[in-house]
Amino acid sequence: MEIPTELSSYIRVLKLASTPSWEEFSQVAKIAGAGILLVGMIGFLIFAIMSFIPGA
């Protein structure tokens, strides 16, 4: 493991990276939020079904 080689590759990646625009950030946040809500709703539906089925 050569530290100078890895460090230079990390620096190269950081130089290429840029902060997202507000529109891009907003779109990613909306998609992530929708995914979180979808997973939560699926979990709640499974919980509700399991609580109504006796002996499950």
UniProtKB/TrEMBL annotation:
Q: What is its main location?
A: membrane
**Keyword line:** Cell membrane, Membrane, Protein transport, Translocation, Transmembrane, Transmembrane helix, Transport
Membrane topology per the entry is: Single-pass membrane protein
One GO biological process this protein is involved in is: protein targeting
- Record keyword Transmembrane helix present: yes
Write down the superkingdom of origin. Answer: Archaea
Q: Which GO terms describe its molecular function?
A: protein transmembrane transporter activity
* GO cellular component term, pick one: plasma membrane
Which subcellular locations apply to this protein? Cell membrane; Endomembrane system
Query: Is Cell inner membrane among this UniProt entry's keywords?
Result: no
Q: Where are the transmembrane segments?
A: 31-53
Q: What does this protein do?
A: Essential subunit of the Sec protein translocation channel SecYEG. Clamps together the 2 halves of SecY. May contact the channel plug during translocation.
Whom does it interact with, and what assembly results? Component of the Sec protein translocase complex. Heterotrimer consisting of SecY (alpha), SecG (beta) and SecE (gamma) subunits. The heterotrimers can form oligomers, although 1 heterotrimer is thought to be able to translocate proteins. Interacts with the ribosome. May interact with SecDF, and other proteins may be involved.
So what family is this one in? Belongs to the SecE/SEC61-gamma family.
Annotated protein name in UniProt: Protein translocase subunit SecE
